[in-house]
Amino acid sequence: MKAIIVMFDSLNRHLLPPYGPSFVHAPNFERLAARTVTFDNCYAGSMPCMPARREMHTGRYNFLHRSWGPLEPWDDSMPELLKRSGVHTHLVSDHPHYWEDGGATYHPRYSTWEFFRGQEGDPWKGVVSAGVNQGGFKNALHRQDQVNRSYMPTEDEHAQTLTFEAGLDFLRTNADADNWLLQIETFDPHEPFFTHQHYKDLYPHDYDGPQFDWPAYERVTQDQQTVDHVRNEYAALVTMCDRSLGRVLDAMDELGLWDDTMLLVNTDHGFLLGEHGWWAKSVQPWFNELVHLPMFLWDPRFPAAGERRDALVQTVDIAPTMLGYFGLQPTADMQGGDLAAVARADRPLRDGALFGIHGGHVNVTDGRYVYMRAPERPDNAPLEEYTLMPTHMRGRFEVAEFADAELAPAFGFTKGVRPLRMTGRAAINPYAYGTLLFDLETDPGQRHPIVDDAIELRMIELLVTLMRANEAPESQFVRLGLPAIGAVGSQHLLVSRQADRAAEAAEPLPPLESFASGDLGLDTPLHELLANPAAAHVITTHLPALRHNEMINMIAGSSIYQIAAVVPVPHRTLSAVADELAALPA
């Protein structure tokens, strides 16, 4: 038995031709759909990058118990289980997060692996003359990215190309061997949208601004020409991904692999390109553009080509699928199902799909309705982290984060091991957006949240059932105002109670020039405002969270307006702040 996983990052389902009309040139994705089963209702689970990969390894949801981090000591890793059973597992990737503290336990689970440097702000090539960073973490990433690009002057030297070339080399070397799994995983089309000119030439458009292929995680404040430019930059990178995918399909044709090799093509999440007035991910609710994913499967045991399936499937289904294909049973802790069963007969694996980010909305869909549950209280508490691998994305936990750490009772899936229980932290408080309910049948674009107590009550029951099955900590139920045990009732409804706040958060951010300005204003860096007693009083009065935010050092260089592009601030509050700051003497 042989299997190939081709995994992309931030690949948008709604822009791929197999899922509907699209301006994106992607003939190999159409070719893929003609050779495989296309899943129409695939949803993400835990976001973003490494939480999704933990699900891919373990077949369990990640986001209810911990944030971004490594595999835990108790985790069952699908590639490692295969390796122990005699299946050679090989990973080729240019995904930089595998090199960081928060991803460092994933790639050693494979029998062999290869990595290619240079994506995003990967600290790869050292060029001192590029300058000293004086603009914070993000500026350092952007500066390093420009250095990295200079070492990839041609498509052949691009990290994505090298990744796929290494995967193809594995195929050529091992086509006649048996019992192997190859995972070709590229960081693309994740931002920044770096391609060479011949891909950009496929998308001619008017744009005369500066280089802009890396939108920040915030509201769209640029003009339509700039938005169109970024969409075209993304499309060019998807077309490059399409070419790489075509090379894999060509190799399967040439080497005769369709007869005995499973092929799974998937992604972790999508990326907002102006939809809902937002760029990127993680700082807004998890709309369908981000979580309704493309997925394709070829199973040589039950060949079905050019067919589609409606059953709800998720990232947690990948581990049981691969284990089952190689004749192994999923472990008792795996919650996913076998995608091959869906491909054969469209057999449902679940009634609902959970998805979310640690500390954010806890979301559920039944395929028609999407329910986004916000916290009941403004403090988004209690939020707890359970781990024995205390690292964040790019660093270790700080000493101060261990102040209240204690060993918690073991969960059923931790194999008797007691994890550390620590106070968790969320990048964005979802309370600001309110609880949302959407009907995808009448509103596929999720433009108009509905208020319907009967439907909300049914979705709450589904949400609570799935959370309990996942052994969600009691703190998650308390945070969301839901019962950890017992029945769900009308007292647990939130959509109507939070509708005004949800509507306010959905309003576009007005242009900066529409607010009052003076010597101090919404465009003044926060640290300057806090250093001025009168301005600090304005901030304390209207935006107290900014005065005492534990992440103040990260946002101090930003202006109030820049912060409002990330965190919803009511327009009336922004206007009051602007008016009072403008009235202050120089």
The radius of gyration is 24 Å
Q: Helix/strand-derived class? A: alpha/beta
Distance between the termini: 74 Å
| Cα shape | globular
What's the helix count? 19
Major β-sheet strand ordering: 5-4-6-1-7-11-2-12
Strand content: 5-15%
Major sheet, described briefly?
8 strands, mixed
Q: What does this molecule look like?
A:
Helix 5 runs parallel beside helix 7 and helix 15 runs antiparallel to helix 19 (571-582). The protein is of the alpha/beta class and 586 residues long. Helices cover 32% and strands 13% of the residues. It has an eight-stranded mixed sheet, with helices on both faces. A four-stranded antiparallel sheet has the order 14-15-16-20, with helices on one face. A three-stranded mixed sheet has the order 10-3-13. Mean pLDDT is 95; it is low at 549-553. The longest helix is centred in the middle third of the chain and has 32 residues, at 224-255.
Descriptors:
four-stranded antiparallel β-sheet; 20 strands; 586 residues; globular; eight-stranded mixed β-sheet; 19 helices; alpha/beta
Please provide a brief summary of the model.
The protein has 586 residues and is α/β, with parallel strands linked by helices. The protein contains 19 helices and 20 strands.
Detail the topology: elements first, then pairings:
Elements: E1 2-8, H1 27-35, E2 37-39, E3 42-43, H2 49-58, H3 78-84, E4 88-93, E5 112-115, H4 136-150, H5 159-174, E6 180-185, H6 197-200, H7 224-255, E7 261-267, E8 272-273, E9 279-280, H8 288-291, E10 292-293, E11 296-298, E12 307-309, E13 313-314, H9 318-325, H10 339-345, E14 353-356, E15 362-365, E16 369-373, E17 384-387, E18 406-407, E19 420-423, E20 436-439, H11 453-469, H12 474-480, H13 499-506, H14 526-531, H15 533-542, H16 544-547, H17 552-555, H18 560-564, H19 571-582
Parallel strand pairs: 1-6, 1-7, 2-12, 3-13, 4-5, 4-6
Antiparallel strand pairs: 2-11, 3-10, 7-11, 8-9, 14-15, 15-16, 16-20, 17-19, 18-19
Helix pairs in contact: 1-7, 3-9, 5-7, 15-19
